[in-house]
Write a structure and sequence with these properties.
nine-stranded mixed beta sheet; globular; alpha/beta; 10 helices; Rossmann fold
Length: about 325
């Protein structure tokens, strides 16, 4: 299990997706089909919004990204996350691991996933059929611009509901209304953001305007952005965007300039690739004497990913 893993030096890959999932709360999964694991979870608890990032290099403990409440002795982190890394850095593996956890540990009635991918979704075919996805993968720039605009409208509508019910956030709202009135959390995951940000100036402005609005109020409304880029330059991640991304996950980048673009400090250019991750999490102190956490991301073979995703989807279909 991941909690027992000992890395064979930096850049060593940690086990498979089975390990990633069974590490949750120290549960062993027997044959590891994934179904029993998901069935054993307290679905809807804060743990469902705590995502394993990997094994910390300083003490081998698990580091979590907590999007709604504290968990595993870590604080609640920011609502929005920026991920960057060059080819071969492990960015895709990290992204797929987060997506798998998202659909595995959250009831489709409480979590909606919107995925934007300029690469036509070729890396995410295993998500086809996931009940958390209320629409197909968005692959065209005009449709993606509409997604951002619609999210801002949705956020404002949700804020009005909070005001009408006299509550400060989505959690309190859902506790005070009937099950039919409850709001799901919305996760917008945008892969290869830099590809369109650098080439489509109109799209860049839509994204920056929307992110600025969502950055201020989206936490209370239950809306989370995960923006992913291979490019780590001013066109891909302008200051207006970075300032609203409280969680910064940076895999290996080409140079110190790229590291500063993502983390506001040098160091990510010295990572070894293959899931070697530097990260800063909002509201979370870093280890003593370190400017950021250094983590090894769990590695997943594609066959494992498909198998567990299929088991997870079968489980959720059985509950409807």
């Amino acid at each position: 299990m991941l909690r027992d893993a000992r890395l064979k030096g930096r850049g060593g890959r940690v086990s498979t997706t089975v390990t990633l999932l069974s590490a949750r709360e120290g549960r062993e999964t027997g044959q590891g089909t994934g179904v029993d694991l998901v069935a054993s979870l307290d679905v809807g608890s804060p743990a469902g919004l705590a995502f394993i990032l990997g094994a910390r290099e300083d003490d081998d403990s698990l580091l979590y990204l907590n999007l709604a409440g504290s968990f595993a002795d870590y604080e609640e982190h920011g609502p929005h996350t920026l991920i960057a890394g060059e080819t071969g850095s492990g960015k895709g593996v990290l992204t797929q691991g987060l997506l798998l956890q998202m659909i595995a540990f959250n009831d489709p009635a409480t979590a909606e996933l919107i995925l934007i991918d300029p690469k036509k979704g070729v890396d995410f075919g295993w998500l086809n059929g996931a009940p958390h996805m209320k629409q197909p993968i968005v692959t065209e720039v005009d449709a993606a611009a509409s997604v951002f605009a619609n999210l801002v409208v949705e956020m404002d509508a949700r804020y009005q509901l909070l005001v009408d019910h006299g509550v400060p956030h989505i959690g309190a709202y859902n506790r005070n209304v009937s099950p039919e009135q409850r709001l799901s959390r919305i996760f917008l995951v945008h892969d290869e953001l830099g590809a369109w940000m650098a080439q489509e100036k109109e799209y860049q402005e839509v994204v920056l305007s929307s992110v600025s609005a969502l950055g201020m109020k989206a936490r209370a409304a239950g809306i989370h952005l995960v923006l992913i880029t291979q490019r780590a330059d001013a066109d891909a991640v302008p200051t207006r965007l970075r300032d609203n991304m409280g969680n910064r996950l940076c895999l290996k980048v080409q140079n110190s300039t790229g590291s500063r673009m993502v983390l506001d400090r040098r160091g990510a250019e010295k990572l070894l690739g293959k899931g070697h991750l530097a990260c800063i999490l909002a509201n979370q102190a870093t280890p003593p004497g370190q400017e950021f956490f250094v983590v090894q991301v769990p590695f997943a073979e594609f066959d494992d990913l498909q198998r567990l995703a299929a088991a997870v989807m079968a489980y959720w279909r059985g509950r409807t």
